[in-house]
Amino acid sequence: MLPYRHQILRNLKFGALPRFVALQKQKNELLIEAGLTPYDVWAPAFGGLHHMVLEAHFASMAAFETEHLAQKQIEGMATINAEQLACVIEGSAEDRLQRLGLAAR
Question: Which domain of life does the protein's organism represent (predicted)?
């Protein structure tokens, strides 16, 4: 497993789940086409279907930053991001970049 995990946490408006997931599928297709890392989509075991997590793993923080900047250059990505945000309950958006393990030295 790669040592860095990026999680995008969103609480969706009622009824917005199908649209949000369809938009993420479009984004993942664009990411794969550009040679970038697609995001898994899942919901936590506790909570409702309106709690969504998008998750991807990266080799380093530098790799994450490189891909993040590259995503901004993909035509149509900003429009899809805006459409996804329209599905999200205002004030509920959160992102996490976590290092998954630390080696004892």
Answer: Bacteria
